[in-house]
Design a protein that fits this description.
- Helices cover about 30% and strands about 20% of the residues.
- The chain is globular.
- By secondary structure, the protein is of the alpha/beta class.
Amino acid sequence: MELSTISELVIPSDTKVVLLVMDGLGGLPAESGGLTELETARTPNLDRLADEGICGLHVPIGPGIAPGSGPAHLALFGYDPLRYQIGRGVLEAGGIDFALTSRDVAARGNFCTVDAQGLISDRRAGRIPTEICAELTRELSDIALPGVELFVRPVKEYRFVLVLRGEGLSDALSETDPQRVGAAPLPVRALAPDAERTAALVNQFVAEAAQRLAKHHPANMLTLRGFSKKPDWPSMQDVFGLRTAAIAIYPMYRGVSRLVGMEVLSGGTTFADEIDTLVARWNDFDFFFIHYKWTDSRGEDGDFAAKVKCIEEVDALLPRLLALHPDSIIVTGDHSTPAAMKAHSWHPVPALLWSNRCRPDGVRAFGERACLTGALGPRIETTALMPLALANAGRLTKYGA
């Protein structure tokens, strides 16, 4: 559905909507015939919401497509990710409050480890501490490129942002990350004729950075992806008539929230801190997006048991959210990250929608197999969740006469 159509149906209300995203929530059994991480976790509070609400599985992009976090979150916010496309660079820059201009091209960077043959042995350099990342970015910040300004800023752990500022720069560039170990970082290629100069500049930066990083370990090389420029999109205030807030600890998710006009609140360092922020600012906004990262991180680590514990941590703190009496709640993930795969996957993502206007569907527990039978359906488009949350909060009127 077009955002303009939804915008025409919005009506004023003082109701509250919460979108709680456990990143990478969907999973797979650790062994044939077993349970997924979500099905294994003890989740009495999520199960109660599932019992009283409606459940299903959603598809962020399309069947068989494993989504990145950026487009998957845009879909959760109601924006068609195939129409509203953006690279990871802009998201990471926004996440650390780096003010991009129209003359900028931004890229997401990873420090990585390469062996003596120049092949990647660890795509995340052992998840180095953010303090080490900051030292490395300072060392790279004085690399000189002809005709442009260069900015290298730390994000979190092994992640950083590279920004080139100048006239005539293009973001039509290929990525240097081969997305697997045992392969060498790739050179940047121009994907359009007017991007040749920008590609040459980025390759010059990478070559100089490789020389400087060679003496460091484990972060002795870098990769770049998500080259992008700042877009001009309608805000959630404009489309949905909501005062929106984001509570997220990891910078990328703060960045994607800013792109759609959310006010980004301080989230602290733990999920308990995020709930503290929610409670403190409850009266200031109509819509809250709360992001929990660690389900995804533990899935990427291949740690099934740790991902289960992360889900249980969220469930244990859920009563504090429910005590605020939101009118409509969505609990879901942006994509699936099965520990068995150690990566984002194409599997549909479990979701529950709760409000006092729901027609319960008979699902008694929150899990992948249970959600298959729920009223939301086994393959609902992710972009449909936001209109459903608004309708259940009494914020949409009828369409047509």
